[in-house]
Each structure stands twice: as C-alpha cells, then as structure tokens.
Write a structure and sequence with these properties.
It comes from Bradyrhizobium huanghuaihaiense. Strand 1, helix 4 and strand 2 form a beta-alpha-beta unit. Helix 4 crosses helix 5. It is built from six helices and three strands; from the N terminus they run αααβαβαβα. The chain has 139 residues and is an alpha/beta fold. 43% of the residues lie in helices and 21% in strands. 11% of the residues are buried.
Amino acid sequence: MAGNAHELRPKAPDTEKITINLGYVDLGHVDLMVQEGFYSNRTDFIRTAIRNQLERHVEVVRQSTARKNLDLGLRNYTREDLEAARRAGEMLQINVLGLATIAQDVTPELARATIASVSVLGALHATPAVKAALADRTR
C-alpha cells in the first residue's frame, strides 16, 4: 500500500545553496576545527559563523527590516491572491527578507498584471517564465 503513495506537492527546500571561496589557510583552519570535534562538518562551521555575525548585528537588521517594510520569513503568493488583487485593481509590492514563492500555476500575464515590484533579500521561487516576465520589476 505504501508503494502507491504519491507526494501531491513537492516540498520546497528550506535552504538555499551558496558557494564561497576561501583561502587554503582559512579552509585548513575550518577543517582543523571539524577534525577536533568543534563542528560536525564544514557546513556546520559556516552556518554557525553566519548566525554569530547575524546575532552580533541583530539590532541593525531589525531596524533595517522595519525601515524597508520587509515581510520576514516565508511569503507565498498564490494564483488566488493575485486574482484577488487584479479584481480589486491593486498592484502588489513584494518586499521579502527570506523566501518569496510565486505559485507554479501563476501565469506570466497574471504576474505582470498584479505585481508592481519585487524585492527579495534571500530567495525568490517562481517559474522561469514568471521570473522573466517580472525581470524589469525586480531589484
């Protein structure tokens, strides 16, 4: 019975892959910390370092988030959301710190008709066609 189970909607990843370049000595220091058991792997070290820096500057981040009127976290824009905005004659200003997702069933035409601007600090998930349609409105 379990072999017949289907995932109705693929789960979006909760992380985004980034690439960094480190000098050999810095990389060696990271590997030494991992080898000595302070961190489980390089990724654990890098995530911890980033979190420590964010915590160090938490007040500046909080003030900037408020000043720029950013939605914090995960923000999903469904086809229904955009159709409601179109019916109301409204244009959306998407300002997100985190992950903004525009649903897979949103057409490029609907996106252009209802989204005035897109500013995402983090990641934007949308179809390539929707991203292309909004390219001139994305900063």
